[in-house]
Amino acid sequence: MIQQIYTGLATIAVGVGLALLYFYGSNWLLDRLLPQGGADARATRNIRLAGAIRPWLFLGPAIFALGLYLVYPVIATIQLSFFDAAGSTYVGFANYTWFVHDSNIRAALLNNFLWLLVVPAASTFLGLVTAALTDRIAWGNIAKSLVFMPMAISFVGATVIWKFVYDYRGADQTQIGLLNAIITGLGGRPEAWIAWIPWNNFALMVILIWIQTGFAMVILSAALRGIPEETIEAAVLDGANGLQIFFRIMVPQIFSTIAVVWTTITITVLKVFDIVYAMTNGQWDTDVLANQMYFWMFQGTPDFGRSATVAIVIMILVIPIMVWNIRNARRETEGH
Amino acid sequence: MADLILKGVAKAYGDVKVLSNINLDIRQGELIVFVGPSGCGKSTLLRMIAGLESITGGTLSIDGRIVNDLPAAQRGIAMVFQSYALYPHMTVRDNMAFALQIARKPRAEIDAAVDKAARVLQLTPYLDRLPKALSGGQRQRVAIGRAIVRDPKVYLFDEPLSNLDAALRVATRIEIAQLKEQMPESTMIYVTHDQVEAMTLASRIVVLAGGGISQVGTPLDLYERPENEFVAQFIGSPAMNLLPGEIVATGAQTRVKLQNGGEVLAAIATKDGDRGMQVNVGVRPEDMLPTEGDAHVFEGEVEIVEALGEVTLLYFKRVGEAAQVIGKLPGIHSELRRKRVRLTADPAKVHLFANGRSLLYR
To answer: Is the sign of the CA dihedral B75, B77, B78, B79 positive or negative?
Structure first.
């Protein structure tokens, strides 16, 4: 363990050192190759030339890394999606035909759609409500920290926590799951929550909502504080009550922020994998697209083509939301 | 449209007293202006009347009803904010209609009220625009329109012109004056730190200082008969000169010998016992005239000349720790720089203050 931490630290030190060396060294080399002293035409030309080259020199490593780890995989994945299970024979659109007709995929798509409907809406709504309420109380900051805390937990970690909440033991055993313990404590009958079709899907969604509410709350709380106090006072004088002020004066003024939060969570939801994988691995009708992608890549009989096809479909679903999100964010910053 | 009475009104944040013992009787149809230096509590007082700040002492009544604990919306007041406070996501029409929509007034009535206000304020072509597509002056007119539409008992204005540029400020000031003329029975309270606004708009001015009322009166009252040194120096620009001296002769007119060597006659009656009293002689810069004769209220070397065209301001060199004396002559007098100038004052325009209070009000 300690050994690994040392290795990690050493890697960071070496990496940062090399990066510094590269930036400093390449800059030094550029200045050497294109001397910029003096006032003659050559020096002027060199200054301009060096100015044109330097950005590429500094951006180079980043562009290279992005290309290697982002652009190339996308292209390779698109390519793989047109090949067979082993990735060696071209099969045209066969994988896509399979995708459209496969019943497991259809079930996963349906679940993804459910997630899309529920999680962004619930997280944004709860985030908005907690933001508005915590702004009004003295211990609001403590409440905010508590609500935000799950953001710091990895999806798998959160799932493990919630496994203890949903845990089910045979009817004659002691229930160690929090939910079942409460129910049996109140004299009810324990339930196997994660196998309870179709409600188990919602049990999984609760985990992501639990995580994302903190994110929504922090962003929306900042937006709420940006609303000019006078517009709220004017509404008070105009006779609006608390709810009317909230829904007719405050929410419309932060609408673009709400949209950004909503779409950001939507993208997270489209990619949801860890929670499903760690909790049910897609059993009991809880499968989602990302889990199907993982399944075809690493479990059962590996099929690179099908896995790549699922990956491409997820990407195509995310892109329009991403574009809209970025455009929205850009328009908002233009306003300032 | 109502009378508004403040009795012993006070405001404290914990132990910090911001305002105390404010007594004011505002009659229907008046335009009252609150002026005072920044931090004097004028905006706080306005917000207390509006119901945006709680009243921690005394009573506020509108139309004979005590409204201390009445929510802002039910007091029948409308407020125009310094920052306009328009709802940025609503069109001009919706901004003006919002209060009536909240009150669930019938659609036709709302439209009629909005259209009428828009006509008065020349906003009809802009009704479907958003506030961000309007100029500063137009936004301020929308804010005023939002108040008019509600037909309130009292209009409150919180420094409504301070976000506008100089030219627009003059134009909008005149518009507000005209608006008041069109609605003679409406009561308005107007907060400003700009004394030109105060002098031109007010039927009465309330000067606030140090958490209390310094003087209440018509603009000319405050200019001609200030009750104390603070008001004397706050109203008028440049501020009134205060010259320390001692009463040497009493009667229907009072003669004061000044510490700077000058002497002045004031048309203020004093009693025999006042002889020897230490006083400050107040003379406004515009009330001092150059003289060749011996009798003078002030003599000194001009340090700086500011020729503004219509008038010339003379800044005299300070002697010791005395405050700088300023003169104001009609016309252009650039030639007076570095010259010694001797000034006299009309006895009718000389003020006398003892311990900061005017001898007129003893």
So the answer is: negative
Domains of chain B by start residue, with CATH: 4-234 (3.40.50.300), 241-361 (2.40.50.140)
Q: Which of A238, A250, A331, A332 to mutate to test the interface with B (most CBs of B within 10 A)?
A: A238
Q: What percentage of chain A exceeds 90 in pLDDT?
A: 28
Give contacts of B 42-61 with A, CB under 8 A: 50-52
Ordered by start, the domain boundaries in chain A are: 2-80, 97-334
Predicted confidence (pLDDT) at residue B240 exceeds the cutoff of 90: yes
Of the candidates B53, B64, B76, which has an alpha carbon nearest to the alpha carbon of residue B7?
Answer: B64
Reply yes or no on whether the pLDDT at B1 is more than 60.
no
Q: Degrees (nearest 5) of the Cα angle B256, B260, B261? A: 65
Say if residues B77 and B98 touch (Cβ distance below 8 Å). no
pTM of the model: 0.77
Q: Under an 8 A CB cutoff, do B85 and A255 touch?
A: no
β-pairing, B65-66 vs B16-26, is unpaired
Per-residue pLDDT of A225-241, as tens digits, reads 889 989 999 999 988 88
CATH number of A97-334: 1.10.3720.10
Contact: B83, A233; criterion CB under 8 Å: no
Starting from the edge strand earliest in sequence, which strands make up the sheet with B340-345, in order? B288-290, B340-345, B298-307, B311-316, B326-330
Contacts of B79 in chain A (CB under 8 A): 233-234, 237
